Amino acid sequence: MAFSIAIMGNEPVSEVELEKKELKETTIIDSDLLAIDFCGEAVPLSELRIAERYQNMIRNYDNPSFRKLMTKTQKRMRIIEPILKKYGVPADFQYLPLIESAMSNQVTSHKGAGGYWQFMPSTAKYLGLVVNETRDDRKHLVKSTHAAGKYLRELYRQLGSWTLVAAAYNAGPTHIQNRMDSQNKDDFFKLRLNSETAKYIYKILAVKEWFSNPERSREWGSGEVLTRLTDFKSEQKKAELDLAKVAADS
């Protein structure tokens, strides 16, 4: 059942005060627009900083090149998802190769990461892939996806959160674990991370949403959702201040 964000005071007030302040329940945003998750973990889009980052990334992927890539990679996506499922990895991770390599096995980073999933040679070999002068399993979609399934499952066992797994895929598990320990936080959205890693989950979310819910993506891209959310936050703060003043004066 859909719900809505509403402006309401936390403390009981008299009917006179309610009439004086004209605090009426105000519907701002349909719940479906905020009901976005990554692997079943809710994204706190009611927080303005997170909503703004998400909107920016949705807009970033709203272009002809990405739409062409979506059409081009449908067949490969159908190969990836069932393999990940065998390892208990949520379907949302099927979008990683789009971010990492634009679903191309020919991409090699300046650090030496290669193939669909952009594994470093050492990581690929650790996961059982062959990488040498004559053969590179990172370029084989099925073999490299099996390796990705193993790796993502291992990261989840270590970190216990799929959003943190995504961050660790980008920055490395040791780096993420160190950030968690030093900041005493285990929530991706509360961690202070470098710019690239901080944006990584929003890239996955944007790609996932354009594939699975283009209508909602277009609404977010229009700016309308963030505007209404910003207005709501402003009105909410004003209402809380007004109620506090009423309570102080009574």
Q: What do you see in this structure?
A:
With 250 residues, the protein is an all-alpha fold. 60% of the residues lie in helices and 2% in strands. It has 13 helices and 2 strands; from the N terminus they run ααββααααααααααα. It has helices spanning 15-21, 31-34, 48-60, 64-72, 74-86, 96-101, 121-126, 141-159, 162-171, 173-183, 195-212, 214-222, 224-249, and strands at 37-38, 41-42. The chain has a two-stranded antiparallel ribbon with strand order 1-2. A hairpin with a 2-residue loop joins strand 1 (37-38) and strand 2. Helix 3 (48-60) packs across helix 11 (195-212), helix 9 crosses helix 11 and helix 11 (195-212) packs across helix 12 (214-222). The longest helix is centred in the last third of the chain and has 26 residues, at 224-249. The radius of gyration is 22 Å and the shape is globular. Residues 1-27 have low confidence and may be disordered.
